[in-house]
Design brief:
The chain is an alpha/beta fold and 407 residues long. It has helices at residues 13-22, 36-46, 60-68, 80-93, 105-112, 115-121, 135-144, 173-181, 221-229, 244-258, 264-275, 284-293, 328-345, 363-370, 381-384, and strands at residues 2-6, 28-33, 50-54, 72-75, 97-100, 124-126, 149-158, 186-190, 193-197, 202-207, 211-217, 235-241, 302-310, 313-321, 353-355, 385-389.
Length: 407
């Protein structure tokens, strides 16, 4: 089996490739990048099952040839509004499976519209399989399965952790994405209908075991994909959590961008200058310890909260991860991508079409595969995920779940 890793030597793609190689998931990985030397240097580090390929994906003929020679494509090249749809169309034409990390809600909707064409071609495509979207969607499904019917779903994450691994002259794609999703308008699902609204709106959540906590809306695919698979839902939102000071900074930056005083690029550069690069020591257990010290305000670093009915009574369930793959944003995004690819190649997934993660992945098998690749290592889904329920007495001491303490 051969995997074509588009952007496979980039900050996220390299973690997907390493996982594919170390887990012996496929016979051959082709690391494709516009910078041939960069691809060759990385491939040389990975051993004889990895080959470099100089590829400009805007060259349709070259892309067609590379995809046609592959069994599956992993795509970590952004922006997805520019390249995502065309790459998936090529995979459908060449009958090649596909997995990406698309985190733009608009692009996600465009990709999902190709479902019928993918089904006719007999291929499986999973879009948005990283951390958020990705693991977050799977956590939502895990919580949803505990209720008889669901009414509200919130996927959430600590925005401070979404920093680039390095700071260069041009802002990273991840930072630009974040700025776009924090400015202008975003799409949420409220009162059973999709709605375009302003981001950074406060939402108060009653988190089982923690009580009332405040979060803020942000544009993301989870909000628009989950209702496609769960028709009883009335509300679906993606939210972020952070300190009150950071919220004020985000609102100020968004105001300048929305009023065209500064550009999105300038705003992204400013945000990276203020935040700085990610710190490899800021692991999920470190984040939990941070949160525990601010327990009046904070929510888990990555969670899903669902409300609805169980046994005819109002109920809520929350799922939060207690560890994650190492390597900062690159590892926590690239490794789930590789796991999804492996499940397709091993025929553990056989449904065909285009899916968001919650539409095709069963939570426990996916999380069982992620758990041993986390730091700290977890034994499986139940060890990796802390599930709290409104019908069970629980007063979480988050500090007890962290192996690291704040000095």
């Amino acid at each position: 089996m051969k995997v074509l890793a588009l952007g496979g030597c980039g900050g996220i793609g390299k973690y997907a490739v390493k996982t594919l190689v170390e887990q012996k998931i496929c016979d051959r990985v082709i690391v494709a990048d516009k910078d041939g030397k960069k691809a060759a240097d990385f491939a040389a580090q990975m051993g004889d099952r990895v080959e470099p390929l100089t590829l400009d994906i805007s060259n349709k003929s070259a892309l067609d040839q590379a995809v046609a020679a592959s069994d599956l494509v992993t795509n970590t090249i952004g922006p997805f509004f520019r390249f995502g749809t065309e790459i998936l169309k090529t995979c459908i034409e060449k009958r090649c499976h596909y997995v990406d990390i698309c985190d733009d809600w608009e692009s996600t909707l465009n990709l999902l519209e190709l479902n019928d064409r993918a089904r006719a071609a007999g291929i499986t495509a999973i879009v948005g399989l990283g951390v958020t979207p990705g693991i977050s969607n799977v956590l939502a499904k895990k919580a949803l399965l505990e209720l008889d019917s669901a009414e509200q779903v919130f996927t959430g994450w600590w925005i401070d952790a979404a920093k680039p691994d390095i700071i260069v002259s041009q802002p990273s794609a991840a930072t630009l994405h974040g700025i776009y999703q924090l400015t202008g308008s975003i799409r949420t699902f409220e009162n059973g209908k999709y709605r375009d609204t302003r981001p950074v709106s406060p939402v108060v959540l009653d988190y089982p075991g923690m009580g009332m906590r405040r979060a803020y809306t942000i544009g993301h695919p989870e909000a628009v994909t989950i209702p496609r698979y769960y028709p009883t839902l009335k509300t679906s939102m993606n939210v972020f959590t952070t300190s009150k000071t950071t919220v004020m900074e985000i609102k100020a930056l968004a105001w300048f961008i929305n009023h065209k005083i500064i550009s999105v690029d300038a705003g992204a550069r400013f945000a990276e200058k203020i935040q700085g690069p990610s710190d490899p020591n800021e692991t999920p257990d470190w984040m939990i310890a941070q949160m525990a010290n601010q327990r009046k305000y904070w929510l888990p670093p990555l969670f899903a909260l669902v409300t609805g009915l169980k046994n005819g009574k109002p109920a809520s369930v929350a799922c939060a991860i207690l560890s994650a793959p190492p390597g900062g944003m690159g590892g926590i995004t690239g490794i789930p991508l590789a796991i999804g690819a492996s499940m397709i190649l091993k025929k553990e997934i056989t449904k065909v079409g285009v899916f968001a993660p919650e539409g095709i992945l069963e939570p426990d098998p996916f999380l069982n595969a992620i758990a041993p690749l986390c730091s700290p290592v977890k034994s499986g889904s139940n060890d990796l995920v802390l599930t709290t329920r409104s019908w069970e007495k629980s007063d979480i001491d988050w500090m007890s779940y962290s192996s690291r303490r704040i000095k």
